[in-house]
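Let's study today's protein:

:::
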Amino acid sequence: MVTADADGQHNVWDIFRVSKKAQENPNHLIIGARSFSGNVPLRSAFGNKLTRFLFKQQTGVSVTDTQTGLRGFTTNMIPFMLKVEGQRYEYEMNML
């Protein structure tokens, strides 16, 4: 199962790559990290840096892009994902 934002920021081939990685790693959440180069809005760049920092402080784990909507996992993880609490962006952070 792959989720992707509907705003066109994820390449179709990246979606396929995330799907393949999820199949190769059935008990892992695969995230597709975006490249923050070029014309990235200051708010987006700052928000991602802040959430990456806070996530690492809380968990000790470095994640390149905590805000990405490009995520993949196998169907055996659905029961776990259904237990994750939160709405919208909060859910995306909690699933990490």
User: Anything to note?
Assistant: The chain has one domain: 2-95. The longest strand covers residues 2-3. The chain has a mean pLDDT of 89.
